[in-house]
Design goal:
Elements (H helix, E strand, L loop, with lengths): L18 E7 L2 E6 L14 E5 L13 E5 L4 E5 L1
Antiparallel strand pairs: 1-2, 2-3, 3-5, 4-5
């Protein structure tokens, strides 16, 4: 299993072969993990990934465990 590498930020294009874009709007995208990539926070496979460049975010009520990773430019929310 390949773990997402966010050492120098997150580049979705490096993982596009295994992530499916679900929605995208200004400063935010929601992706499904189709390739069993590992979470950069815990190492376990994740289901969905929200990548946001916004300063404020509202996520609703996740019904499963989640991890949060911060790069210099983005916030990544990964649900398991």
């Amino acid at each position: 299993m390949t773990q997402l590498d966010v050492t120098d930020g997150f580049d979705v294009h490096e993982y596009r072969h295994g992530l499916k874009l679900l929605t995208e709007d200004r400063g935010q995208m929601h992706l499904a993990n189709r390739n069993e990539f590992g979470c950069p926070a815990c190492g376990e496979p994740f289901d969905r990934l929200l990548v946001s460049e916004r300063r404020q975010n509202t996520f609703g009520k996740p019904d499963s465990p989640f991890c949060v990773v911060r790069t210099d430019d983005e916030l990544l929310l990964l649900t398991h």
